[in-house]
TrEMBL record:
This is YdbS-like PH domain-containing protein. It comes from the Bacteria. The keyword Ion transport does not apply. The chain crosses the membrane at residues 21-44, 50-71. It comes from Paraburkholderia hiiakae. Keywords: Membrane, Transmembrane, Transmembrane helix. Residues 70-143 form the YdbS-like PH domain. InterPro entries: YdbS-like_PH.
């Protein structure tokens, strides 16, 4: 949570930290492993060593990209906003204040329901809905967003004279 911790404002604290679900990257990891196995099989047959190296390197690159995406994805609910960061080389950040969040929708596939992962789609006043994909335990994360909103509403306003 390096980015999230560095983006905290004075008086802000993390209420709930989320992480991407490794199962959400299952298809990419499966494809990368199949490419590597295919490269090894072609290499052991000896028919085309260049193709074998190509398949293995492609699978290794896809596997590395999947791990990099998993390691560089951070998101959290603080007592004032929702903060998310995706990507290492091309960084995409989302920072929404709790007061402007109007809806939080969970989207899950059948496999997502089985392995308890999905995407959160956060709707805020007049802006395009912001998706946060591949979250582990998305219903709990959505609940924490609503609890943080309720807690923020209870804080009394201080009037400065």
């Amino acid at each position: 949570m390096k980015y999230v911790e560095s983006a905290l404002l004075p008086g802000e604290r993390i209420v709930c930290g989320g992480h991407p679900c490794f199962w959400a990257m299952g298809p990419r990891i499966t494809l990368s492993l199949l490419l590597m196995v295919w490269g090894v099989l072609i290499g052991t047959m000896g028919t085309s060593p260049l193709a074998a190296v190509g398949f293995f390197v492609a699978g290794l690159g896809l596997f590395g990209a999947s791990l990099l995406a998993w390691w560089t994805t951070e998101f959290a609910v603080t007592n004032k906003r929702v903060v998310a960061k995706f990507g290492a080389l091309r960084r995409h950040t989302v920072e929404l204040t709790l007061a402007k969040i109007e809806s939080v929708r969970v989207e899950q596939s059948l496999i997502g329901r089985i392995f308890d992962y999905g995407s959160l789609v956060i709707g805020s006043g007049g802006l395009i809905a912001t998706p946060i994909p591949g979250i582990a335990n998305p219903h709990e994360f959505r609940r924490m967003v609503f609890l943080a909103q309720v807690a923020e509403e209870r804080v009394p306003l201080r009037l400065v004279a």
